Amino acid sequence: MSESRRFLHLWLATLVALLGLQLASCADVQSGAEQAPPGIPPSAPVTHQTVPPPPSFVPGPRLPGNLPMVGGPQIALLLPLTGRQSASAIAVRDGFVTAYYSRPASDRPGLRIYDTAQMSIAAALNQATGDGAGLIVGPLTREEVAAAAAYTGPRPPLLTLNAVTGTPAAGNVLYQFALSPEEEARQVARRVVADGNRAGVALVPGSDWGRRVLAAFTQELNAAGGQLLDSASYDAGSTDYAAAISQVLRISESESRNKRLESVLGTRLTFQPRRRGDVAFIFAPGQAQQERLLRPQLKFYFAGDVPTYATADAFEPNVNANQDLDGLIFPDAPWMLGGAIVDSVRDATNAAWPTGGPKRNMLFAFGFDAARLATALRSMPAQSGNATSLSVDGLTGHLTIAADGHVLRDLMWAQIRNGEPRLVN
C-alpha cells in the first residue's frame, strides 16, 4: 500500500471516530447505517452543528496563482438532513465532510451544518450569515435553491447544490452546481458532431426529464452545425419501444412500400424491411433499465450499426446485464469510470465503512466536489469576484465555472464493450 493510501486509511478511520463522538447529539446528521459512517446514533433535534477538526490526503483544486484565504472564518452547509430528502442529503453531507477533512488543518475554515428541513431557507441564510459564514454551500432541492436565489437579505457568496433559471437578487454572488442531465445532453451533442455524425434521430422517454434532455440536446446540436432529422418518445414503463423506433427509422414506410408493390404485382414478395438511410447517429438517453431494452430493439430494427449515444444515466455497473448495451457511447463521471483521486477515496471509504462505503453513490461524489469547489471559491481574492479561472479535478468531472456562475462538468467518455465501459478519447 502506498504511503498516501496508508495515510488516507488512517485519516478516514480518525474521521469516523470523530464524527461518532462529535455528532452524537445532532439530529441533523443522523442517518441509517447504509448512508452514514458508523457511530452516529439518533438524537434530539437541533438546527445546526459545528464540525471539529483530524489530518490530509487528496491534492487540492488548481487555483489561478498563490491566493490568500478570504471571507468569513467558516463555511455553512445547508441540507435537508431530516424528512423526505434526508437520504440524499446525508450522502451529500458524507462526501462533503470527507473532502473537508482531506484538507490540511491550516487550510480548513470552521464548518457548520444547518438542517433546512427544520427551518426556512431565509432563516437558514440569515442564521448562517449571522454565525460568521464566509461562504454558504447549499441548499439542495430545486425549491430550496429558488428560494435562496430570491433571498434579498445580506449574505456571503452562495454555492447552491442544484440549478434554477433566473438571476439572483441584486448584489448577491451566486454559483450553481448541479448534476444536470441537460448539461450532459449538451456534451453529447458536441461529441456527436465532433465524431463527424451530423444528422440523426432521437428516442427519449415520454417524461418531463426526456423533454428537457431532448431540448438541451437539440439546441446544442443545432449550434454545433448538426441536424436532428426526427425524434420520438416512448413509454418508460413499457418494455416494447417498437412504435417509436419504427417512427424515427421509418420502418413502417418501408413496409408500406412493400405492400403497395405486392398489390400492384398481385404476388407476395420476399421482403426485408429497411430503415432510413440518412441516419448517422441515434441519441437515446434514458435510465439503465430502459437502455437495456432499447438497444437490442434498435438492433432488431437494423440500427445496431448506427453510433448510439446516451447520457450518464444509461450506465450502471453490471457486466452481465450490460451485454445488451454493447456499442453504446456515453459521458460519465470519474467516480463511475475511475481515476487516481477516485481510487484513493474509494479504497479508504471501503475500508472505513462497515457496509463497504459509498461505492458509486453519485451524491457522495457530488458532496465531495462541493467541498473542493468551496475551498477554491474561498481562495479567490476578495476584489476579483471572477471564478472563471478556477479549475477543479473532482469525482464528478473536471469542474470549471462559467461567466454566469454555473459550474460546468467536463466528463469522461466511454463505450460499452463486452458489458463493461471502456474509455474512449
What topology does this entry show?
Elements: H1 3-22, E1 48-51, E2 74-79, H2 86-102, E3 110-115, H3 121-130, E4 133-137, H4 142-150, E5 158-160, E6 174-176, H5 181-194, E7 199-205, H6 208-223, E8 227-234, H7 242-249, H8 251-265, E9 281-283, H9 288-300, E10 308-309, E11 329-332, H10 334-337, H11 340-352, H12 362-378, E12 392-393, E13 398-401, E14 407-410, E15 412-417, E16 420-423
Helix pairs in contact: 1-11, 2-12, 5-6
The domain count comes to 2
Q: Which ranges are low-confidence, i.e. pLDDT below 50, for 5 or more consecutive residues?
A: 3-11, 13-46, 52-71
Strand order of the largest sheet: 1-3-2-4-5-6
Number of helices: 12
CATH classification, class level of the largest domain: Alpha Beta
> Helix and strand string, N-terminal first?
HEEHEHEHEEHEHEHHEHEEHHHEEEEE
How helix-rich are the residues, as a percent range? 25-40%
Protein model, in words:
Strands 1-3-2-4-5-6 form a six-stranded mixed beta sheet, sandwiched between helices. The protein has a four-stranded parallel beta sheet with strand order 8-7-9-10, sandwiched between helices. It is elongated, with a radius of gyration of 24 Å. It folds into two domains: 3-179 and 339-412, 3-Layer(aba) Sandwich (Rossmann fold), CATH 3.40.50; 181-336 and 413-423, Rossmann fold. It is built from twelve helices and 16 strands. Helix 4 links the parallel strand 4 (133-137) and strand 5 (158-160). Mean pLDDT is 82; it is low at 3-11, 13-46 and 52-71. Helix 1 (3-22) packs across helix 11 (340-352) and helix 5 (181-194) packs parallel to helix 6 (208-223). The two termini are 30 Å apart. It is an alpha/beta fold.
